[in-house]
Amino acid sequence: MHHCSSSPFPSISSAPRPFKSTTTHSNNPARPLHTPPTSAELTLAILKPSLCSYQPDVSAVLKELKFSGLNPVRSRRMQWTRAQAEEFYQEHRGRFYYDRLVLGMSSGPSLSLALYGPNSIKAWRGMLGATKACRTKWEAPQSLRGRYGITDTRNGFHGSDSPESAKRELGLIFDGWDTDWWMAREARLSSDQGAI
């Protein structure tokens, strides 16, 4: 996706952030996160304002994530503006639930995580359960949305649905982050480690 200067997501140098951004990643070139299998990928996970309004729920989800095999490599806590939510959910513009999505995402703080691991898109979405929280509470009550979702639009979470979506969304949230470069770097570090 082409990023233009009119993006409502500020770059690090262009505008202050409403919340302190916390970015975590592997800085040790001699020790990558793990030896990535060919199926290793990045995905965006968002804990939405409806979940982030209650810190014990956030802590419980992060604890569960710790044991999932998905590694958070970057994180950012922020209060979205309406313009940011509109840009993020632009593919849903014109649908009956669009305004509720935008209002929900701009209603309070959220936590975004870049997750890395084998089949991370499928794995994270599997943990979430179906988008429609009302149905998920019956069909998959142990899923994250089954336990924490309130309504179909206030379902507590977001997960990228494809590698292309993940790349676009991670670039928006993490200030133009070049995920292709990061993945290539991880692959190089892993192959270097294997040669030792």
From TrEMBL:
The keyword Cytoplasm applies. One of its GO terms (molecular function) is ATP binding. Residues 40-181 form the Nucleoside diphosphate kinase-like domain. InterPro entries: NDK-like_dom (IPR034907), NDK-like_dom_sf (IPR036850), Nucleoside_diP_kinase (IPR001564), Nucleoside_diP_kinase_AS (IPR023005). GO terms for biological process: CTP biosynthetic process; GTP biosynthetic process; UTP biosynthetic process. Pfam families: NDK. Residues 1-18 have a biased composition (Low complexity). The keyword Ligase does not apply. Residues 20-29 have a biased composition (Polar residues). It catalyses: a 2'-deoxyribonucleoside 5'-diphosphate + ATP = a 2'-deoxyribonucleoside 5'-triphosphate + ADP. It comes from the Eukaryota. PROSITE patterns: NDPK, NDPK_LIKE. Residues 1-37 are annotated as: Disordered. Its EC number is 2.7.4.6. Keywords: ATP-binding, Cytoplasm, Kinase, Magnesium, Metal-binding, Nucleotide metabolism, Nucleotide-binding, Transferase. It is an enzyme of class 2 (transferase). Belongs to the NDK family. This is Nucleoside diphosphate kinase. It comes from Ceraceosorus guamensis.
